[in-house]
Amino acid sequence: xxxxxxxxxxxxxxxxxxxxxxxxxxxxxxxxxxxxxxxxxxxxxxxxxxxxxxxxxxxxxxxxxxxxxxxxxxxxxxxxxxxxxxxxxxxxxxxxxxxxxxxxxxxxxxxxxxxxxxxxxxxxxxxxxxxxxxxxxxxxxxxxxxxxxxxxxxxxxxxxxxxxxxxxxxxxxxxxxxxxxxxxxxxxxxxxxxxxxxxxxxxxxxxxxxxxxxxxxxxxxxxxxxxxxxxxxxxxxxxxxxxxxxxxxxxxxxxxxxxxxxxxxxxxxxxxxxxxxxxxxxxxxxxxxxxxxxxxx
Length: 297
Ligand SMILES: Cc1cc2nc3c(=O)[nH]c(=O)nc-3n(C[C@H](O)[C@H](O)[C@H](O)COP(=O)(O)OP(=O)(O)OC[C@H]3O[C@@H](n4cnc5c(N)ncnc54)[C@H](O)[C@@H]3O)c2cc1C
Hints:
Helices cover 33% and strands 25% of the residues. The protein is an alpha+beta fold.
């Protein structure tokens, strides 16, 4: 498969990048690590066409690479407040960070375990989000952590909670002239517990069948749950929270019976597009495992 023809643009600042998006609109695409975009462009140029661009529809004529903008791989930590993740911060950058390991273990664990080393070196967290895949591995942990995306254009700037970012499969709330400049992740309030679980179709490197990310913030050392976030991936048209299951934990100490009840409830909060019975079963199983693990983490 060959790449179709396009013009590569290399802005030196984010302002230049947004100006280019403003000029070219849907004829342009941002390039971060390229592990989704380049594959998709190749598919589009193949005889099968692509799920993203119909055969008659034109793909982008301009690809705007962000690698020429300095400082975008940054991880900036404000202790007790937020972690800022840049638009071309890779999974490997996150997995190599001691600060993330100590202060955001849920994100650290997710970034070091999924897919294969080549993808973790090239792929970015922001690219994973902007691609809009229902099975994106990093979006559920970002949702569980209450992350927000800072979205900019030449006209304006806004913040979008990650849980509202994807609107349908491979569709996001980004407008044609907007890009994600940063992910802002609030630091969980101590004491808290966490867990990241995923299962795939066959090998660990395959696309996720079910992703579960759990963050439990406790009111006290007795582990009464003050706030829970249970985020699911690959079991609905977009990554989402299991709100009913979360509400069952409110003000409670989780014991085996309650965890069992929640794991039964959570299956009904999914709407898988395929292999429905299996995905529901695995969601139940992984949520039970995640809640149990979060009590110990
Ligand atoms: C072999 C292989 C295995 C993979 N395994 C997994 C896996 O196990 N789990 C998983 O979740 N994914 C997997 N992926 C998909 C991919 O690697 C990830 O989604 C990755 O995080 C995408 O990041 P990227 O930087 O490469 O994005 P890119 O390909 O550069 O971009 C992806 C999309 O986001 C847009 N975009 C990127 N940055 C911005 C921005 N700042 N603002 C606006 N739009 C932007 C691009 O225009 C494009 O539409 C795999 C891919 C391959 C090829």
